[in-house]
Structure formats: C-alpha cells, structure tokens
Amino acid sequence: MMLHYHLLFPCFLCFLCFFNLTTTSELCFDSTCNGNFQTIRFPFRIQNKQPKSCGYPGFDLTCHPTGQPLIHLPFSGEFIVQYIDYQNQEIWVNDPNNCLPRKILSLMLFGSPFDAKNTVDFTFFNCSGSDEIPYDFNLNPISCLSGLSYAVFASSSSMVNGILSSRCELVKTVSVPMSSESYSWDLDLRNDLRLVWKKPNCKKCELNGGVCGIKPNSTNEIQCKYNTSTPSGTFLSFVHIVFSSLYTYLFRSVRE
Ligand SMILES: *[C@@H]1O[C@H](CO)[C@@H](O)[C@H](O)[C@H]1NC(C)=O
Ligand SMILES: *[C@@H]1O[C@H](CO)[C@@H](O)[C@H](O)[C@H]1NC(C)=O
Ligand SMILES: *[C@@H]1O[C@H](CO)[C@@H](O)[C@H](O)[C@H]1NC(C)=O
User: Fold this and answer.
1) Ligand 1 surroundings by CB, under 6 angstroms
2) CA-based diameter of the chain, in Å?
3) Nearest ligand (C-alpha, residue 99)
4) How many Cα neighbours within 13 Å face the side chain of 98?
5) Which of 22, 39, 90, 242 could serve as 85's disulfide partner, Cβ 3.0–4.6 Å?
C-alpha cells in the first residue's frame, strides 16, 4: 500500500500541471468595431483595440465606418468580414464597395492565411454594343462593371461560355471561392466568398471550450487555455475531488 501512495501523489501533481488549472490570462479581451457585429477574438484582432500579441499575423482587422470589420488581403485589398466561424475556421467576406465581381477579378489569396474551400470557375466576358448579346440564357450583365456601351457577364456554364466567347471579348477566368456547394450557373456573384484558414489550428481548442492564443515569448506558437469557470473547469474540479478523495482513502488505508 505504501508504494501506491507514493506513486499516486506525483501522478496527481502531473495531472494538474497537464491540464493547467491556472485561470486564463486576462490580457486578451474580445472586442468589436461596433456592438452590432460579431465579437472579434484570436486569431483575429482589431488593430488599435486589441494588443498585437492577441492576434495571429495576417489576421489583423480594421473597422469600416459602418462598424463592420475589414480584413486586408495582400494582393486583393480590403474585404468586409461578414461572419467568422471560429470552430470550423471559416470566414465569409464581401466587397465594402458593393461590387464583389470587381474584387473577384483581382482575387488572389497568395500571401494571406486564407484558402478557398470550394471553388467554381467563372469566365468573365466584355460585350460591346455591337456584339449580339444572348440575354436568353438568364444572363444578367454585372451592373457595377458594365457601361453604357458595353456589358460585362460572368458565367460558369461551358455552353454559355462557348456562345459568349464567339461574340464577346474574354476578360478572364477566375476560380471563385463560393459560399456554398450548391450554386446556380447564372449566379450574379454577389454572395459572400467563403475562405478557410488552416494555421493557426485552434479547432480542437475551440471545440473543447478553450481559449486559443499565442504562447508567451514564442514566435507564433499557439496554446490552449481553459477557463476554470467554464464547464471544462467544472470537470477538472470534479477530477480534482475524485483524486483528493482517493488520496485520502489510500492515505488512511496505509495508516490503518
Ligand atoms: C470592357 O470594355 C470597355 C470598352 O469596350 C472597357 O472600357 C472596360 O474597362 C472593359 N471592362 C472590363 C471589365 O474588361
Ligand atoms: C518573457 O518575456 C518577458 C519580457 O520580454 C520576460 O520578462 C519574461 O521573463 C519572459 N518569460 C519567459 C518564460 O521567458
Ligand atoms: C471565465 O469565466 C468567467 C465566468 O464564467 C467569466 O466571467 C470570465 O470572463 C471568463 N474568462 C475568460 C478569459 O473567458
């Protein structure tokens, strides 16, 4: 019995260390540009509102005058962040100037932490006044890209692309990160783009109710902390009680 008692105490201490029962750092607080929008937390941070160490590089946000958060992609400029799914590590973005197709034409995710999840290739055509435009394919010109003497179309249908390419000037084919897997080929590219991020990976931490953040004094290494007041904290308190009782019981057994 003496042997068990000697083994159990170090085990108990290790257990506590492993789960890090200390309360989470109070330095990083959730923030928001304006109360009407989603709160922002790691890996995102609002510049000038949250300390640099509370965000991950590439996830800095600024605030649009409307109160919506903006993200800057190195080669594509600013996008409004419509929604952040922290658990699945996805964001929905749109154009602050209400002309998403224009942003799509210059979209390049290279150099940003984001990737597309599912893409659909859209080909853009520029049809001038003298071209015979086939409006019968449910095609609507993209109004914010069209002028008085020309109309710009985008299509993901190879049949429509075939017809348009014989009549109009081909502008570009772009892989568009669509927000859902179901789409219609004549979609006018106004819906939010859905982007995903893989690094930093806080999925498990988020799922377990932890607080993900950068490990102090590390170069972007992440850590997951648990708030002792959260349900997982309650669970740890329970584990603590079980171990304490067991310890007391064994201690008594040894004495007797
Ligand atoms: C379409 O063509 C017109 C001139 O015909 C040009 O001014 C305009 O910039 C073009 N738009 C695109 C998106 O290529
Ligand atoms: C982390 O850095 C701070 C200031 O740079 C220093 O005071 C502290 O001792 C460091 N902690 C560790 C564990 O290195
Ligand atoms: C931890 O939980 C308490 C009570 O639920 C809450 O008031 C506090 O803000 C939480 N701290 C963090 C860092 O989430």
Assistant:
1) 126, 128, 145, 150, 152, 171
2) 103
3) 1
4) 2
5) 90
Structure token pair of residue 238? 């329970």
Query: Which residue's alpha carbon is at the smallest distance from atom 9 of ligand 2?
Result: 217
Q: Would you state the structure tokens that stand for residue 96, as one six-digit string? A: 């602050």
**For 35-81, what is each residue's pLDDT tens digit?**
788 999 999 999 999 999 999 999 999 999 999 999 999 999 999 99
Q: 58 CA to middle of ligand 3, Å? A: 27
Judging by beta carbons within 10 Å of its beta carbon (0-12, 13-18, 19+), is residue 226 exposed, middle or buried? buried
Report residue 2 as tokens: 């003496």
Task: Report whether 132 contacts 167 (CB < 8 A).
Answer: yes
Q: What would the 3-class secondary structure string for 25-67 be?
A: CCCCCCECCCCCCCCECCCCEECCCCCHHHCCCCCEEEECCCC
Residue 128: what are its φ and ψ, rounded to 5°? Answer: -90, 170
Considering just the CA atoms, what is the radius of gyration of the chain in Å?
A: 27
Over residues 95-143, the pLDDT tens digits come to 999 999 999 999 999 999 999 988 999 999 999 876 677 667 778 889 9
Atom of ligand 1 minimally distant from the CA of 152: 13
CA 184–ligand 1 middle distance (angstroms):
25
Is pLDDT larger for residue 181 or for residue 18? 181
Distance 228 CA to ligand 3 centre (A): 8
Helix (H, G, I), strand (E, B) or coil at 86: coil
CA of 69 relative to ligand 3 center, distance in Å: 24
**Ligand 2 pocket test: which of 217, 218, 221, 223 has the largest number of ligand atoms within 8 Å of its C-beta?**
217
| Other Cβ atoms closer than 10 A to 221 | 10
